[in-house]
Automatic annotation (TrEMBL), chain A:
It comes from Coemansia erecta. This is Complex III subunit 7. The keyword Mitochondrion applies. The lineage of its organism: Eukaryota, Fungi, Fungi incertae sedis, Zoopagomycota, Kickxellomycotina. InterPro entries: QCR7, QCR7_sf. Keywords: Electron transport, Membrane, Mitochondrion, Mitochondrion inner membrane, Respiratory chain, Transport. Its main location: mitochondrion.
UniProtKB/TrEMBL annotation, chain B:
This is Cytochrome b-c1 complex subunit 2, mitochondrial. Belongs to the peptidase M16 family. UQCRC2/QCR2 subfamily. Residues 43-178 form the Peptidase M16 N-terminal domain. SUPFAM superfamilies: LuxS/MPP-like metallohydrolase. GO terms for molecular function: metal ion binding. Pfam families: Peptidase_M16, Peptidase_M16_C. InterPro entries: Metalloenz_LuxS/M16 (IPR011249), MPP/UQCRC_Complex (IPR050361), Pept_M16_N (IPR011765), Peptidase_M16_C (IPR007863). Keywords: Electron transport, Membrane, Mitochondrion, Mitochondrion inner membrane, Respiratory chain, Transit peptide, Transport. It comes from Coemansia erecta. Its main location: mitochondrion. One of its GO terms (cellular component) is mitochondrial inner membrane. The keyword Glycosyltransferase does not apply.
Length: 123, 428
């Protein structure tokens, strides 16, 4: 309901400029990059939409995702972190899954809309 | 929200053009438009087809099988509309969506009510210019293409006719209609490259039945097709079809029924239907005991094997002949009898037989034009300049029969090599 408003606020460049240093601090404090992960590796995947989005990932991205998750799991078992040269670089922490999730979400919404619409006969 | 523009009402216009002389127009960037408007009030139905001159003939070795994949990508996700929405809206409108591919053209057809034509012209323009060719869709399309190729490979007649084309024309027209399992087209990107090379204004036609050509041209000009660049790379060109005689494609099979396709090539595609009528083994008079009026029909009926004539016409070549089917032990003898029959009775057919063949070909052509698919094909050939040709007279058919049926044939056989008649031993 407030999604269009949220989208406008989020895409406003002034707003993003204010948030960026706060966002970077948050990312560094959360520490997922120290485990070699990307943000999109941490999205909750136990929903049908995200499962479909993951099924649509290309081979390279799928392999990278599986490797990063395995490595991070091993690090968390051994209560260790990667040495700093191997932390995820900011340019590698891009949204590889969120656009696909959005695509699948729109497709599901479209299907629901078509399934619940009423048709009016022209005659 | 009314998805149909107001100009839809104007489309139910009067027109008495026949398929033989359709109204032809073209858009500013060179897309040909041909249409036949049915008599007003005759039928509320119309059809619009997008014909792309990018069939298997134009595949280079890097894109072997691309035309089959491009046909499978019909009506899939585009930038502005998902495949689900296209299909669901077609269902709500009562429209039928079809995609088909021949060796020369790939055709996407929509059969719908007349009021829906402007909407479906937009749909066709979108799939031509804005298809996404996404990787997850490619995986689905690849499964469909693999199934179609498998079915074709296991259909004997399809397999021998495909092999016959390869024997006769080698590359170009000889390329298989069906993508191989090992096709180099392994991603949506490759299909997109092929699509972008063939979706060029000089190679596209939009044909319609039940619509007016000028209205259809206006709709096409307003759609995304109208903004394709008129000048640019012309896309893959096929070399002129060079037919080779005396070549045989042998497929090994120990099935109980063997098949043998014997074909004769010709430069003039207009002659293939009357020539096939000369070879025809079926009768227009059902339940007749003589098994048809042609000599080959008599031969087949009395000797107990099957003959099916075929005729393929392309823009610069034709292939006409028969497929002989017989039990494995009889196929060699059957093919030799058929070859003798062609040399004696068909190549040197008398005036009466030629006259009957001309009449039969005329009726067959008229019947084909009565079907929706036949009309669309005839319009597409007219629009793309792929050689309609005029009907042959008796004298012309006689000389064509003499020259074509005494030339060296090509063959494709499906059976055991020990039991196969080889084409160079048939006496041509």
């Amino acid at each position: 309901m407030l999604e269009p408003v949220a989208r406008i606020v989020q895409n406003n460049s002034a707003f993003r400029a204010i948030c960026r240093p706060l966002a970077n601090t948050w990312v560094n404090l959360s520490g997922y990059r120290r485990l070699g992960l990307r943000y999109d590796d941490l999205l909750r995947e136990e929903t049908p939409i995200v499962q479909e989005a993951i099924a649509r990932l290309g081979r390279d991205e799928t392999d990278g995702r599986v490797f990063r998750q395995k490595r991070a799991f091993q690090l968390s078992l051994s209560h260790a972190e990667l040495p700093s040269p191997q932390w995820t670089k900011p340019q590698d922490d891009y949204k590889y899954l969120q656009p696909l999730i959005e695509e699948v979400r729109l497709e599901v919404a479209e299907r629901d809309a078509f399934n619940s619409m009423t048709t009016v006969s022209r005659k | 929200r009314n998805m149909f523009s107001t100009k839809a009402a104007k489309l139910a216009s009067r027109g008495y053009a026949s398929v033989a002389s359709p109204s032809v127009a073209s858009t500013a960037n060179g897309i040909k438009v041909a249409a036949v408007a049915g008599a007003s009030g005759a039928s509320p139905l119309a059809s619009v087809s997008l014909v792309i001159n990018g069939g298997s003939r134009f595949e280079s070795s890097d894109f072997s099988g691309a035309a089959h994949f491009l046909k499978g990508f019909g009506f899939r996700n585009t930038q502005g509309r998902t495949s689900f929405r296209t299909v669901r809206e077609a269902e709500l409108n009562g429209a039928t969506l079809t995609a088909s591919a021949t060796r020369e053209n790939i055709t996407y057809t929509v059969q719908c009510f007349k009021e829906a034509v402007p909407y479906f012209v937009e749909v066709l323009a979108d799939i031509a210019t804005k298809s996404k060719f996404a990787e997850h869709e490619f995986r689905e399309v690849a499964r469909l293409v693999a199934f179609e190729s498998l079915s074709a490979r296991h259909n004997a007649e399809t397999r021998v006719l495909d092999g016959l084309h390869q024997a006769a024309f080698r590359g170009g027209l000889g390329n298989s209609l069906y993508a191989l399992e090992s096709s180099p087209v392994a991603s949506g990107d490759k299909v997109r490259q092929y699509a972008q090379s063939v979706v060029v204004p000089g190679r596209i036609a939009v044909v319609g039945t039940g619509v007016d050509a000028q209205e259809l041209a206006a709709l096409v000009a307003e759609s995304p097709l109208g903004s394709l660049a008129a000048s640019g790379p012309a896309g893959p060109q096929a070399a002129a079809a060079q037919a080779v005689g005396g070549v045989q494609q042998v497929y090994e099979s120990a099935a109980p029924v063997s098949h043998y396709a014997l074909g004769f090539t010709t430069k003039d595609a207009a002659s293939v239907q009357p020539l096939a009528a000369l070879l025809n083994a079926s009768s227009r008079v059902k339940w007749s005991s003589s098994g048809g009026s042609t000599s080959l029909a008599h031969l087949a009926a009395s000797s107990g094997f099957g003959i099916a004539p075929f005729a393929f016409g392309y823009s610069d070549a034709g292939l006409v002949g028969v497929v002989v089917s017989a039990p494995r032990s009889l196929i060699k003898n059957a093919v030799q009898l058929v070859a003798e029959g062609i040399q004696k009775n068909v190549a040197l057919a008398d005036e009466q037989a030629i006259g009957r063949a001309v009449a039969k070909a005329a009726v067959d052509a008229a019947e084909a034009e009565g079907t929706a698919a036949g009309q669309i094909e005839a319009l597409a050939k007219h629009a793309l300049g792929q050689g309609m040709g005029k009907a042959l007279a008796v004298g012309e058919l006689k000389s064509a029969a003499e020259s074509v049926f005494s030339s060296k044939p090509v063959a494709a056989s499906l059976g055991l090599p020990q039991d196969t008649a080889y084409v160079d031993t048939l006496g041509f």
